[in-house]
Amino acid sequence: MASTRSLDQWSVHRHLQNLAASTPKKTQEQSNHVFLSKPTSRRCAILISTLPFTLTSLPQLSEARERRNKKTIPLEDYLTSPADGLKYYDVLEGKGAVAEKGMTVQVHFDCLYRGITAISSRESKLLAGNRIIAQPYEFKVGAPPGKERKREFVDNPNGLFSAQAAPKPPPAMYSVTEGMKVGGKRTVIVPPEAGYGQKGMNEIPPGSTFELNIELLQVMPAEGK
């Protein structure tokens, strides 16, 4: 009887030793598992946190790269207009009708001074409102500047538009447009005497040379043709 009791006690004691020996090992395995998973989660967190910055930076880098790659036109590549002696360069030669003296044309124009757009037909204002629209400028090639500005109002799909309130183009545009084709884009170097003179205009200081960009949209035959 005593031997049986001793055997049972030995069995229980042995069982407890086995449990004690197995418990730290399991705990260690769990600890190792948790330890290994933490760096993975940390890496994911770092990647996720930097993702918005990366996505935000891509357009900025793209825009900066586009500005760096923008072609600078050498002065020797400019041609001289026979009508007024202005220097011009055809960025894009159109494929439509040719603008001739006496024809009425519609254009978009932008006057840039040191890279800043000072005057633009794409920034016209509607009558009795502050909404800005892109309103093509209409004039007669070779005519005295400002004659077309005597029109009262122009009604278009965007609303009632005042021709007198339209952005004022430089006198150079009335002559240097001759020879352009519909769809064409032309860059012109405008000196003060063919631009805004000693008064200046908006961001263009008095007596300053600036860049004029013209896009020919439409040509209408001269009267009597």
Automatic annotation (TrEMBL):
- Top-level enzyme category: isomerase
**One GO term of the cellular component aspect?**
chloroplast thylakoid lumen
Name of the protein in its database record: peptidylprolyl isomerase
> What's its catalytic activity?
[protein]-peptidylproline (omega=180) = [protein]-peptidylproline (omega=0)
Is the NAD keyword given for this protein?
Answer: no
Q: Which InterPro entries match?
A: FKBP18-like, PPIase_dom_sf, PPIase_FKBP_dom
Q: Which domain of life is it from?
A: Eukaryota
Q: Which organism is it from?
A: Populus euphratica
Q: Boundaries of each PPIase FKBP-type domain copy?
A: 102-220
For this protein, the Enzyme Commission number is 5.2.1.8
Q: Which Pfam families match?
A: FKBP_C
Q: Supply one GO molecular-function term.
A: peptidyl-prolyl cis-trans isomerase activity
Keywords, comma-separated and alphabetical: Isomerase, Rotamase
